[in-house]
Amino acid sequence: MNLPILSFVIFFPLAGAVILIFINKEKKNFLRSFAFSVALINFIISLTLYFNFNAQTPDPQFVEKEAWIGYGINYHVGIDGISLFLVLLSTFMMPIVILSSWTSIQKRIKEYLIFMLMLETGIIGVFVSLNLFLFYVFWEAMLIPMYFLIGAWGGPRRIYATLKYVLFTMFGSLLMLVAIFVLYTTYYKATGVYSFNLFDYYKIILNPNLQVWLFLAFALAFAIKVPMFPFHTWLPDAHVEAPTAGSVILAAVLLKMGAYGFLRFALPLFPEALEKFLPLLVILSLISIIYGGLMALIQKDIKSLVAYSSVSHMGLIMLAIFALNMEGIEGAIYQMLNHGLSTGALFLIVGILYERAHTRQIKDFGGVSKQMPVFSAFFLICMLSSVGLPGLNGFVGEVLCLFGVFKTNTLLAIIGVSTVILAAGYLLWMFQRVMQGPIKNEKILSFKDINKREIGYLIPIVILMFWMGIYPKPFLRKMDTSVTHLLNKVSRRERVFIKAEKDKGFISEIKKVLEKEKNKEMEEELR
Amino acid sequence: MTEIFWLIPFVPALSAFILAVFGKILPKKYVSFQACFAVFISFTISVVSLLGLLRISHENYPIVKTLFSWIHSGSFESNLSLQLDPLSAVMALVVSGVGFLIHVYSVGYMAEDKGYTRYFTYLNLFTFAMLLLVMGSNIVLMFIGWEGVGLCSYLLIGFWYEKHSAANAGKKAFIVNRIGDAGFLLGIFFIFVLIGSGEFTAINKAISGGVITQGAATLIAILLFVGAIGKSAQIPLYVWLPDAMEGPTPVSALIHAATMVTAGVYMVSRMNMLYTFSGVAAQIVAIVGALTAVYAATMALTQNDIKRVLAYSTISQIGFMFIGCGVGAYAAGMFHLYTHAFFKSLLFLAAGSVMHALSGELDMRKMGGLKKYLPLTYPTFLIGAIAIAGVPFFSGFFSKDAILTQAYANGQYFIWALGIMGAVLTAFYMFRLIFLTFHGQERIEPEAKKHLHESPPMMTIPLVILAFFSVVAGYIGLPVVLGKNLNWFGRFLEPVIRVSHEAHLEIGTEWLLILISVAVALVGIYIAYVFYIRNPQIPHALVARFPFIYKLLYNKYYVDEIYNAAFVNSTVKGSEIIYDHFDLKVVDGAVNGTGSATNFSGKILSYLQTGLLKDYALVFLLGAILFLGYLLFF
Question: Distance (Å, rounded) from C-alpha A89 to C-alpha B627?
Answer without folding.
Answer: 38
